[in-house]
Amino acid sequence: MCGRYASSREPSDLVAEFEIEAGNVRESVEELGENYNVAPTNQVVAVVERKNREQPDETIRKLTTVKWGLVPSWAKDTSIGSRLINARMETVAEKPAFKKAFATRRCILPADGYYEWYTAEEKVNGKPVKQPYFIHPPDGSILSMAGLYEIWRDKSVEDPESDEAWLWTCTVLTTSATDDLGRIHDRMPLLVERERYDAWLDPLSSDTDDLLELLVPAAPGRLEAYAVSKAVSSVKNNGPHLLDPLPPDGDDPQDSPTTLF
Q1: Active-site choice (2, 49, 107, 150)
Q2: Residue 116 is a catalytic residue
Q3: Which of 49, 116, 150, 170 is catalytic?
Q4: Where would I find the H helices in 4-122?
């Protein structure tokens, strides 16, 4: 599963990458800033495409912020969101929590890369040692994770025109990990390649088979992994130092890591 990632791109970089008009960037994106330890329930940057209310046959692409942990529109309260941070590709088109969003509310969640924890056979004080790895495109390009978003109506807010009346949330789609990455964890986020941005984001397209064909695991060599400090395991820690590779001798200030590669 994908439960932690890094997001530090400038909004201008995302505007260029996803071909978004400058006027379609919410102020909350600028205010969010860099986050090298994105965790569930955090506000995250998302690329969404919405129908144009004035011209229903047209769409508008926006850069906005959403809360990580999907809350379906039918949910009685928001507590379900903490359990819906990921959606499995194998069942996303059928599960009630994701089916409607998959059909009409797909998004892209830009990232530098994501973290995954490898569970070693060795134990310390009877507990398995878990070594975090940072998994990212080796060329430094943006990692475009496939996501879904939902809009939940908070009925405790009487004015439907108020921003507080609507909660925007998201989930990350996952699939079986490729051979190399599967040695770290058996699941990984699905990626949307640049030539498929338009088709994936298009809210006017809802054919399940066509949409599923857009999603493929990362090709071999598309991503690389290296061990990082166990400091990332605590959401209290943040900053670019979390992306630093462990030295060859594996000297981690937090602990002595297990070498996988």
Answers
A1: 2
A2: yes
A3: 116
A4: 11-17, 27-32, 99-104
